[in-house]
Amino acid sequence: MKRINVIIISIFLSTTSVFSQNTETENIEILLSNIEQDTSKILFLNDFAYKNYRKDVELSKKYINRSLKLSDSINFKSGKAKALRIKGICFSYKSEFDSALYFYNSAVKLNEIINDSNEISRCYNNIGNLYRKLGNYPTAISYLQKALKINKKRNNKKQTCMNLNNIGLIYMKQSLYPEALDYYLQSLEISEEMGDKKKESKALNNIGLIHWKQNNFKEAIKYYNLSLKISEEIPDNKSISSAYNNLGLIHYSMNDYDTAVTYFKKSLKIKEQLKDRRGISMCLNNVGLCYFRTKKLDEALMFFNYSLETKIKMGDEQGQCITYLYIGKTHIANNQHKDALDFLNKSLNLANKLGLTEELRDINKELSHLYSKTNNYKLAYNHYIIFKQLSDSILNKKNIIRVTSLENQYLHKKELDSIFFQQKISETELIRNINNERFARNVFLLSFLLTSVFFILVLILYLKYRKLNIQLKKQKLKYKNQNIVLEDNLSKIKELSTFKEEITHMLIHDLKTPLNNIIQTSKNTDLN
User: Fold this and answer.
1) Is the distance from CB of 45 to CB of 64 less than 8 angstroms?
2) How many CA atoms lie within 13 A of 350 on its CB side?
């Protein structure tokens, strides 16, 4: 019965996306009513809640609560531990971080009791991401490193790859680009070894993001397109949306706003299909920026305000910080200096609270601009100095050299030929070709080695055979010579035997006559 339940669950989870929300809920209830009150039902409730929390987080929480209740009733600790972690994910998605942290830590304690290191590493990863969202990067990295250590020990490459990406993301958020690139390259290498296209696409996308941060737009576009190509082959809508958004950012940075808006709208459409509130908010900001650059300030403010409203509901302080900055810039352009200062100060307070280096740089730049327009040149100068210092710390030669060095090491390791790059052959195809060539070369070398060993053995056997044959010939010749000698001796013996017979015969004949005469004489004497 349990096996049948598992099969039904697998089929259902693969087809839930085709139902409307009401129909889907009704079908879930029908399916659940046909599953026994055992571990199968708990596993189903957990899996469904996890797969659907982005679409309907409240429905996911409802099924997780049912899972927890059933797990307690049958004392299924493993199912309960997983349910606690997923409940933490639901709260984190709603930006209710205190509640999320409580459930994550509860899951860790229960998993330590049942000694489930896999689930413990997942909890640490979730906690690390939570602290990243809060802007507490040192704590975030410490938890992600714990998860990474467990997964490396277990040789869990899939989870290791995810941990590496998440750590790289935090370093990138802090503008520590060489460190971020190092982790992304490790993630890319592992994902290629596993043949995990989804994770490979994500790593390529992140590498492109680092190049964009370093104003290397050509390389950024190359990596984004590699990521997009893989995501479309899978297909993976979330990664496709991310690639579209990042391509939009590149064209935005190149002042190609029409192309940028096209990519942002493609990304926004997918985010809406996925009901990804965080992603929707980000796309709204990006479209607003394009309107800002084209002097459509009212439209820009409208999109920024929509984005800000979403971020406040989510409790996304980092997102609020960025949107406040954008609204402040728009008010400066509208010569609404008081409103501009109000929003920029809100942004500055959050950036200092969260330790956001890049945002602090941009906020100080805008404050310098604002104070300059209001003739407060002393404050304008002070903020400009801070802006310049932060810019130098982010974009300095040492960082750029280290990034280039790390990437060159990786490309050299993969033996990517520069000719192929000039022909714009994808990095993935190059690696595959090189691996095939290596395999073919290794097969050839192995075949050559085996063939050489075979011929050496044949040669050794031939030489031994030849030596033995020579020895046999010599022996045969020796026997032949000995035979000749024997035959010659035999002939001589035969001659001597013949001679002996002849001599004997002669002696007998010669002696016979005198003896006969003597005998006859003796007889005559006796008679007389």
Assistant:
1) yes
2) 22
Residues 56, 25 contacting (CB under 8 angstroms) = no
Residue type, position 99, single letter: S
Most confident of the following: 132-136, 232-236, 363-367, 504-508: 363-367
**Residue (of 244, 234, 250) closest to 264 by Cα position:** 244
- The residue type found at 442 is N
As given in the structure block, the two tokens for residue 497 are 């035997």
**Side chain identity at 243, as an amino acid letter?**
A
Q: Which helix (H) or strand (E) holds 479?
A: helix 427-527
CA-atom Rg of the chain in angstroms? 46
Contact between 84 and 103 under an 8 Å Cβ cutoff? The reply is yes
Of 216, 215, 214, 278, the closest CA to residue 242 belongs to 278
Pick the closest to residue 241 from 289, 207, 211, 275 (CA basis): 275
Query: Distance between CA atoms of 92 and 127, rounded to whole angstroms?
Result: 9
Model pLDDT, residue 525: 62
Higher pLDDT, 500 or 59: 59
Assigned token pair, 194: 């596993």
Q: How far is CA 371 from the centre of its chain?
A: 48
